[in-house]
Amino acid sequence: MFAGLARLLEECLSFQSEKNSGSTFFHELHLLVTLRYFGSEGSASPFINVKDGLGIDKGSILNYVKHTVSALLSFERHNIL
Q1: What is the pLDDT of residues 42-71, one digit of tens each?
Q2: Which ranges constitute the DSSP H helices of the chain?
Q3: How far apart are CA 39 and CA 52, in angstroms?
Q4: Under 8 Å CB-to-CB from 47, ≥6 apart: which residues?
Q5: Where are the domains of the chain?
Q6: pLDDT given at position 78
Q7: Which of 10, 23, 63, 74 could form a disulfide with 27 if both were Cys (CB 3.0 to 4.6 A apart)?
């Protein structure tokens, strides 16, 4: 499921400008961070769980989550999911 959703994100227009960032797996990193963020349990801060697990700072985490959620919402509007 992860690979299929990552392929959809790769094709999404909101990720087109990011393709030139030099990272082949940029869309997969966004999805991984978002899933890790949403999957954080209990009262622990999801930022700490993602930061400790993936070594990404809080600002980047927020950007990745916002970017991914925006793309997922665009899929819903276009009946892709």
Answers
A1: 656 767 767 777 778 888 888 888 989 988
A2: 2-11, 26-38, 46-54, 58-77
A3: 14
A4: 37, 58, 61
A5: 2-15+24-77
A6: 73
A7: 10
